Amino acid sequence: MTQTSNGSELAATINSIIAEHKTLEGPLLPILHASQQALGYIPSEAVPMIAEQLQLTKAEVHGVISFYHFFRSSPAGNNTIQICRAESCQSMGSRELEAEIKQRLKVDYHQTTADGEITLEPVYCLGNCACSPAIRVNDDIHGRVDMNKFENIVDELLTVAVELKL
Amino acid sequence: MNHSSNSPTVYIPRDTTALSLGADKVASQLHSQQPDINIVRNGSRGLFWLEPMIEVTTPLGRVAYGPVQPEDVASLLANDFLQGDSSHPLYLGLTEEIPYLAQQQRVTFARVGITNPVSLADYRAYGGLVGLQKALTLTPQTIVDEVKTSGLRGRGGAAFPTGIKWQTVLNAPSNKKYIVCNADEGDSGTFADRMLMEGDPYCLIEGMIIAGLAVGADQGYIYLREEYPVAHQILNEAIATAESENILGDNVLGSGKAFNLQVRLGAGAYICGEETSLLESLEGKRGMVRAKPPLPAIVGLFGQPTIVNNVISLASVPDIMANGAEQYQEFGTGRSRGTLPFQLAGNIKQGGLVELAFGATLKTLLEDFGGGTRSGKPMRTVQIGGPLGAYLPEHLWDTPLDYEAFLAIGAGVGHGGIVAFDNSVNLSQQARFSMEFCTIESCGKCTPCRIGSTRGVEVIDRITNNEQREENLELLEELCDTMVHGSLCAMGGMTPIPVTSALKHFPEDFSPAEGANSSSQQQGAEHA
């Protein structure tokens, strides 16, 4: 994910995403997914551009972005961790796990850690229900998570982040 | 697959669950220690407590070892597991003879875990495309009749007869029709759709092409939930290969018939698993429920007649076409024909996928297959059919698993997801969560669901805090009744099911002492 620094670069990225997906049937969700994948979020500048080219109102585009839990209007941390809150994970202690993870990261859901590394989100089922509790770290799903395993996952994430920065 | 005669073949699943327990690390460890091994990344057999379960081909058949961690690789190699050596502690014997697997009736999941999911050669070698080839010789009406005869009912939960739905779309006059696969299975405790897509994607693709031939549709969409990144990748790989081999495209297997297929990603909205919300979402709108009628079969995607079927419904069709409707409908009991992939989840020792004909009991699944709870504490309740399903006490676990028998006890089989809880569960907490889930995930279009669920959370809190208990219990019942009868779709209409089943079967958990305690715990763990 790249943080685009200047406005015209951002506009160019969004315009090329719109051009690439515009001919699809029902192109709005694919455009929003591609934008978020490229930029890490869907910037407010994208809304009027998408609206104009798809002949929608800005309110309609904004309404779609805000309806779906996955779309975000501001950047997340370098990593996103989702904790499953659904019944299967509850039966294996996810309520306690989420409380401990929030305490460990010193954030609540939808917040990012002070160092900007981890954004914490709830999720309702990762389809890993026979190995609950489950969490998702970016695109990797982990099963039978306890605090010990969680610490290892975070260590690995942050080590990789430091190595990349060096 | 590239079998050279002297390089042994080892299967290591790339299924989400196996990956979530370290399958990739096992594969890279094995590769680094013995690079000449032919590693095939298969789907999972669905014996999830044994994942990562790896298999090696031997003259007697495939021999399994599991659960394998990266640090086990050295000792496996030292014990000569490549020859199927039985002395290693992780040795499980011939895979097909493991009782959990041997006692199943695998029809829809016949290939899952056996083949490399993206290998078309594997798919063909294990009976793939036979159903499609047969369908290409039949008239649309004959295909629809075959599906009707099979007795197949929608495997997404509502259990509507699939053949009748297809007939409606076939009869609808239009030049443009669509096949939409509802792969937005967002229910807790379900992973059959995910496993099928990850373990045998061509089976779903084949089923969708047959559906297209049956009703005259040349465009299909798989609406996949964003939460399944592995399934997304595997489906896209399979679709690209199917296109390059003329299975998808403008000339399906040289027949001159066209069928194109795309995967579309959802964006984390549970309600988009409801078929009309799903269609709105595919069209690029908020996933708001549509009033029915008109049915999607008549006015569906972009206003055109549309089949909306669940993954397992569509994936059941190739077998029905290949082996005949009669053999399929011989499985099952009463009006529940064929097999259902049950999913054992939650607090269960041997969680995984169990495909059986309808008619087995919950007890068989929970005890014979599941082996009791993972925690070792007594099992207290199971929730069946997802977050909108009933919580059942032990005395109902003898009910045979068929749609009608479950309806009679105020529950539903749904898609066969079964979540077990031990005796540490508090059912007033679970009831409260059902209402809370509905407040978060309601599309907001109708008042009983949007507002009813918010009031539901409050009323349950008052009951467990012992505030005007009798009046509030009565109010909760009325509220549930309003949601059941006044909601536009199953989200609001079914949210009361877990609530009323918890109240009916576990009233002691709503008692003041226990309840007040649990309510404060619940609020402590609540989301922001």
Low-confidence segments of chain B, given as residue ranges, are: 514-528
Annotation, overall tally of beta strands of chain A: 5
Order of helices and strands of chain A: HHHHEHHEEEEH
Percentage of β-strand residues of chain B: 5-15%
Distance between the termini of chain B: 49 Å
* Helix fraction of chain B by DSSP (H/I, runs of at least 4): 40-55%
Summarize the structure in words.
With 166 residues, chain A is an alpha+beta fold. Chain A is built from seven helices and five strands. Chain A has a five-stranded mixed β-sheet, with helices on one face. In chain A, strand 2 and strand 3 form a beta hairpin. The radius of gyration of chain A is 18 Å and the shape is elongated. The model of chain A has no long low-confidence stretch (mean pLDDT 94). Chain B is α/β, with parallel strands linked by helices and 528 residues long. Chain B is 41% helix and 14% strand. A five-stranded mixed β-sheet of chain B has the order 2-1-3-4-5, with no helix packed on it. Chain B has a five-stranded mixed β-sheet with strand order 13-12-16-14-15. In chain B, strands 8-7-6-9 form a four-stranded parallel β-sheet, with helices on both faces. In chain B, helix 9 packs parallel to helix 11. Chain B is globular. Classes of the chains: A alpha+beta (166), B alpha/beta (528). Chains A and B meet through helix 2, helix 4, helix 5, helix 6 and strand 5 of A and helix 1, strand 8, strand 12, strand 16 and helix 17 of B.
What descriptive keywords fit this protein?
heterodimer, A: 166 residues, alpha+beta, 5-stranded mixed β-sheet, 7 helices, 5 strands, B: 528 residues, alpha/beta, 22 helices, 16 strands, globular
Summarize this, please?
The complex is a heterodimer of chains A (166) and B (528). Chain A is an alpha+beta fold and 166 residues long.
